[in-house]
């Protein structure tokens, strides 16, 4: 039987309420039977419900990275609270007696195995389903519409610049908002997001100088998007295959949603990867009109810092499971990487878990960059691309964390180079360092997020996690 941890169970729960309800079923003794199949691959049992007939939750781990979870309750959540309770009972050390697998579960497993065998035979015989063909005519029409949309966007931005940001009134802000809607008709989701961000900046009631500085920076991003987007789309039209760009992020900016099959065909996948999450944050992004769940992970064989992200649109947020912090090591059979630069977005469909051990912590610390000069050079190269991630994350070694006479905090490397710590997100982490013991602030590794202050012209750094010799201390989770 694979190792089942509470952290892994939390990660597959549809929401926090389901987690609580699953724990409550165990605490209240609602499980009248708890069994483990003789082959030690299936957990099953009986759980008292609101009616006379108990529910029958089960979890089949015949394929460990893709467990099949079933229950005869009416809930539409998968897994339901009864399955979660069953798993929590097992992880918590409840007594599971050995028993023969129920006939209905054995029959369902047999059908599933036959389906997998059929797929394997088809793949071996070369009769696997052919890749989905691209409707080139429709794609060309879409590209032409996108080019037209970029022209409309360019006319708007030129008009705003000619008039001057200081002269904008409510009518002009309404015009920007109308153009946000128009961008959707031109299949330019990225333009919608960036234009909405500009509208929000100009509509804010903060300091005028700060507002105009932020608006100028945002107009620069939109200009770069128009220029690079137009060049990319025109080059794509000249390509007989209308191929996707697998190197840069321009496809996502233009609204393309990458499929895992596309990433695999582009050679952007690898097998048997281990990831450990170093930081996690959920936040509201009004410019996207979505809630964002973002986790930063280290790939243990390379030391690369990747990120996973889930977007939950406002209208569908209640129907989607919110991601959460993950504290175990994730053993991923297939890891898919998106085109990108310093931090790649990654996805994986399934995973198994194991506890994070002392040697994992030591390995993470070895990957920490020791020279701030080299780190700053890498970050600046990333920030030169207006369409690149403007908040790159890196793991760096801190010889010590110190403060000056004004109370400002700095991290220093062994060469005496320092980086000032600033809060970049809405969640403050810098001040939390004052509550950590001194030995956690010396000879340690720090996961940091970089940002460039346009007004000051200096890099700003926010600590996300501290990796000591014993543990990962999350400042943002």
Architecture overview:
With 477 residues, the protein is α+β, with helices and mostly antiparallel strands. It has four domains: 6-124, no CATH class; 136-250, no CATH class; 259-356, Beta Barrel (OB fold (Dihydrolipoamide Acetyltransferase, E2P)), CATH 2.40.50; 366-474, OB fold (Dihydrolipoamide Acetyltransferase, E2P). The protein contains twelve helices and 17 strands. The strands form three sheets. Strands 6, 7, 8, 9, 10 and 11 form a six-stranded antiparallel beta sheet that branches. It has a six-stranded antiparallel beta sheet with strand order 14-13-12-15-16-17. A five-stranded mixed beta sheet has the order 4-3-2-1-5, covered by helices on one side. Helix 7 packs antiparallel against helix 8. The longest helix is centred in the middle third of the chain and has 31 residues, at 208-238. The protein is globular. The two termini are 30 Å apart.
């Amino acid at each position: 039987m694979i190792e089942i941890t509470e952290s892994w169970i939390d990660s597959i729960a549809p929401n926090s309420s389901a987690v609580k309800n699953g724990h409550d079923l165990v605490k209240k003794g609602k499980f009248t039977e708890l069994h483990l199949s003789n082959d030690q691959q299936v957990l099953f049992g009986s759980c008292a419900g609101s009616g006379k007939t108990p529910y029958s939750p089960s979890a089949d781990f015949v394929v460990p990275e893709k467990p099949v979870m079933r229950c005869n309750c009416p809930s539409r959540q998968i897994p339901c609270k009864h399955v979660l309770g069953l798993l929590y009972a097992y992880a918590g050390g409840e007594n599971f007696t050995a028993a023969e697998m129920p006939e209905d579960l054995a029959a369902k497993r047999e059908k599933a195995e036959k389906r997998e065998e059929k797929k394997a035979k088809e793949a071996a015989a070369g009769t696997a389903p052919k890749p989905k063909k691209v409707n080139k005519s429709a794609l060309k029409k879409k590209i032409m519409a996108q080019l037209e949309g970029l022209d409309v966007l360019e006319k708007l931005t030129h008009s705003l610049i000619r008039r001057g940001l200081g002269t904008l009134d409510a009518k002009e802000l309404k015009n920007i908002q109308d153009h946000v809607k128009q961008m959707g008709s031109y299949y330019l989701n990225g333009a919608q997001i960036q234009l909405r961000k500009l509208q929000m900046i100009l509509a804010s009631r903060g300091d005028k100088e700060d507002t105009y500085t932020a608006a100028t920076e945002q107009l620069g991003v939109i200009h770069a998007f128009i220029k690079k987007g137009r060049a990319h789309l025109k080059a794509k039209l000249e390509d007989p295959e209308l191929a996707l760009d697998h190197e840069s992020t321009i496809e996502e900016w233009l609204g393309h949603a990458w499929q895992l099959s596309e990433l695999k065909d582009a050679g952007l996948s690898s097998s048997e990867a281990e990831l450990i999450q170093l930081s996690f944050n959920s936040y509201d992004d009004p410019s996207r009109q979505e809630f964002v769940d973002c986790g930063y992970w280290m790939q243990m064989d390379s030391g690369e810092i990747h990120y996973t992200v889930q977007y939950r649109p406002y209208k569908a947020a209640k129907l989607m499971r919110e991601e959460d912090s993950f504290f175990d090591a994730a053993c991923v059979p297939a890891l898919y990487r998106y085109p990108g630069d310093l931090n790649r977005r990654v996805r994986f469909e399934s995973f198994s878990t194991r506890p994070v051990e002392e040697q994992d912590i030591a390995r993470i610390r070895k990957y920490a960059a020791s020279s701030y000069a080299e780190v700053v050079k890498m970050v600046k190269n990333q920030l030169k691309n207006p369409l690149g991630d403007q908040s790159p994350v890196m793991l760096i070694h801190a010889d010590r964390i110190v403060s000056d006479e004004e109370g400002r905090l700095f991290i220093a490397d062994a060469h005496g180079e320092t980086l000032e710590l600033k809060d970049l997100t809405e969640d403050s982490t810098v001040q939390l360092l004052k509550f950590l013991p001194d030995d956690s602030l010396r000879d340690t590794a720090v996961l940091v997020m970089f940002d460039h202050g346009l007004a000051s012209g200096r890099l700003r750094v926010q600590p996300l996690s501290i990796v000591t010799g014993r543990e990962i201390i999350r400042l943002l989770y």
